[in-house]
Design a protein that fits this description.
Elements lengths: L4 H4 L1 H10 L3 H10 L18 H7 L9 H14 L3 E5 L5 H12 L4 E6 L2 H14 L5 E5 L2 H4 L7 E6 L6 H8 L3 E10 L5 H11 L6 E6 L5 E6 L4
Parallel strand pairs: 1-2, 1-4, 2-3, 4-5
Antiparallel strand pairs: 5-7, 6-7
GO biological process, one term: methylation
EC number: 2.1.1.-
Organism: Saccharothrix xinjiangensis
Length: about 230
């Protein structure tokens, strides 16, 4: 039996997770230095900043999915037999590596990622090339509301892990392409309903064609099953 691709890329993943260990401290320092998001400010968190401003503030931070979330992505993508996955918020490509590894083991396919920061796009492409998975991935540089307008076919899995204020915008953009039975994962639930409340209202309303559940995995996941393609 051939070893799963995920086993071959674990040393690279270990290195990337080690590199992000200081992310929390860096983000805390950024917030503390801003009067509009620091203690006593009206804004509750960095996620309340406009998307472009938040992207610039966090340009040097990896902020990947957690290892537990990455493993979940791999398991779900393998089990679903995913052939096309879309992710919003590629950063340095940790989640992309998990998804691409699953697609390799599924026999092929495509991961379409989108990332606003040019330096992060380069880093992600380098990591995917090192893993030997670049041929399965199309990373699009720019605003997801533009880069994801053109999708080549049905989407079996959507990962939303970018600016919280855009979660529902991205879902609505990709929604017409979701296949029946597609999985949608929204990462970063501890930021709370106050920043993605409209997104949660949408996927938790059966009338919108989803069955959805909150999972205590990693930073918190909202996992939604697309019950009917439109």
């Amino acid at each position: 039996m051939t070893a799963p691709t995920i086993d071959a890329i674990r040393p690279l993943l270990d290195r990337l997770f080690e590199a992000e260990r200081d992310d929390v401290a860096i983000i805390a320092r950024i917030a503390a230095d801003r009067s509009d998001v620091g203690p006593g400010a009206e804004r509750a968190s960095l996620h309340d900043l406009p998307a472009a401003e938040l992207s610039d503030a966090l340009s040097g931070v990896l902020i990947p999915v957690t290892r537990e979330t990455g493993e979940l992505l791999y398991v779900l993508a393998r089990n679903r037999g995913v052939r096309r996955a879309v992710e919003y918020g590629t950063s340095h490509g940790v989640s992309t590596l998990y998804l691409a590894a699953a697609l390799r083991d599924n026999g092929g396919g495509e991961v379409i990622g989108t990332e606003l920061q040019a330096a992060k796009v380069l880093a992600a492409r380098a990591n995917l090339a090192e893993a030997g998975l670049a041929d399965l991935v199309d990373i699009r540089e720019g605003d997801a509301r533009e880069t994801l307008k053109d999708l080549p076919g049905p989407v079996d899995l959507l990962l939303i892990d970018g600016f919280a204020s855009l979660y529902l915008d991205v879902l609505r953009l990709v929604e017409p392409h979701l296949s029946e039975g597609a999985l949608v994962l929204a990462d970063g639930m501890p930021e709370g309903p106050h920043v993605i409340g409209d997104y949660l209202d949408h996927v938790r309303d059966p009338a919108n064609g989803y069955v959805s559940v909150a999972l205590p995995v990693g930073d918190g996941i909202e996992l939604s099953l697309r019950t009917a393609a439109r």
